[in-house]
TrEMBL record, chains A, B:
GO terms for molecular function: DNA binding; DNA-binding transcription factor activity. It comes from Kordia periserrulae. The keyword Transcription regulation applies. PANTHER family: CRP FAMILY TRANSCRIPTIONAL REGULATORY PROTEIN, REGULATORY PROTEIN YEIL. It comes from the Bacteria. This is CRP-like cAMP-binding protein. InterPro entries: cNMP-bd_dom, cNMP-bd_dom_sf, Env_Response_Regulators, HTH_CRP, RmlC-like_jellyroll, WH-like_DNA-bd_sf, WH_DNA-bd_sf.
Length: 225, 225
DNA sequence: TTTAAAATATGATATTTGTCATAGTTTAAG
DNA sequence: CTTAAACTATGACAAATATCATATTTTAAA
């Protein structure tokens, strides 16, 4: 039986601000789940009723647009918490979460976390700090979406994934996304992504092997206009 | 000398969760300022070192894009707080604030607010809730930017301003923005805004009088494709 | 392994949006 | 009230991106 107190993952998120006693309580009420690749974790409009702590794997947070396309708003990985926003705002979630790889998560029920948010100001300040950081990142995304070309946004998405999630031994991006997923990050048509990736290949900025992508020239990709 | 305890504006923001004693303390350390239309309140990269409570007027929060254009990320009005994010994250602000009308604001120094964030969990939860709401709105903006046409985004910007800030007696939008400001909300060229507004006029969706805009057909504007 | 389904690739073309040029209008300073 | 500066307006054209069609490759199921 896993134990929050000794869980390494906790170091990377706000749960590190909980006291020993609080962690023991959380440990007792949490449930662990394995989630398969492609599986929906929660859907837009649902009551999430708690917080997920990601022990292993990667998932995408998406929002359905009026035109029927999904927009990927954030990628969530090992160490991250998920679900705090709707927890705090007491509303149904505005995002869907879908696993992009096999995942291990722990689910902590709402009222247990709320106890700590109300009683432990270190913890609530830590959550507040993470949310302020998310908001800052969201500002950057808004500016990029509004002001940059599809080409630039794709280059940045690749660099972001490289920087944030790293590469395998062969230098391939560790996060493997379909062209459609990239389209849903960048906000464009799948064909446009395919076209631009082909161009990047011709320009020796990247190489691909099936769905896997390897960035060959980080600097040049950063200079894309 | 104005007094936070009796200030009506407080009802609209997180300061309503402060106790009587805390309000009296805040009242004693705050400074009131008048800000002229067009004046910069703080600039991207500055240390804000406190929180602004807007007593009167409207301002825009902008972020400079790599291509040299400003992006308007949020409009802040009477009743709103401004500066919480950088306060909490202990970083310089990522946004600039510029008055769009004559403004009355109160400035509360950082360490006074931090005391309350640490000591009053009702207050910190309230701030947290507001930030979660901002984040949810940011998600919507990202999806709109990514998936909708310039035309649709402009229609939505007009509707948003109508809904959020209301109209004058003559039915004109109360917030008066230049075409360039609209371009910086929507993320497009100023000429595109001018063109689309002209089209909206031809289609009897709006009328204009100088910079003032009046929405004539709310429903049709909402149906813009 | 075979085969159907899904994903990727690419061409042709339409649509949207950006850029540059220039003219008219409004606003605010003197 | 006058006038320069700022803003709004519109045309012509270029560039970026979307859409539709179709071929090829990859993936995963039988």
């Amino acid at each position: 039986m896993s134990n929050c107190e000794q869980c390494i993952v906790r170091q990377f998120n706000s749960l590190k601000s909980l006291t020993k006693d609080e962690l023991i309580r959380i440990s007792g009420c949490k449930t662990s789940k394995t989630i398969k690749k492609g599986q929906l974790i929660f859907d837009e409009g649902e009551n999430v009723n708690g917080v997920y702590c990601i022990r292993e794997g990667i998932c995408k947070l998406t929002k359905l647009s009026a035109n029927g396309r999904d927009q990927i708003v954030k990628l969530v990985v090992k160490g991250d918490l998920m679900g705090q926003r709707s927890l705090v705002s007491e509303e149904v979630t505005n995002l869907s979460a879908t696993a992009l790889s096999e995942m291990e998560v722990c689910f902590i029920p709402k009222h247990e976390i709320m106890k700590d948010l109300q009683g432990n100001s270190n913890f609530s300040l830590d959550v507040l700090q993470h949310m302020a950081k998310d908001l800052r990142e969201a500002d950057n995304v808004i500016v990029n979406m509004a002001q940059k070309s599809v080409r630039q946004r794709l280059a940045e998405a690749l660099l972001y994934i490289h920087r944030t999630f790293g590469t395998t031994d062969e230098g391939m991006l560790r996060v493997i996304l379909s062209r459609e997923d990239y389209a849903n990050i960048v906000g464009t048509a799948t064909e446009s992504i395919i076209r631009i990736l082909s161009q990047f290949k011709k320009d020796d900025l990247i190489t691909t092997k099936g769905k896997q992508i390897k960035i060959e020239d980080l600097e040049a990709l950063g200079r894309i206009e």
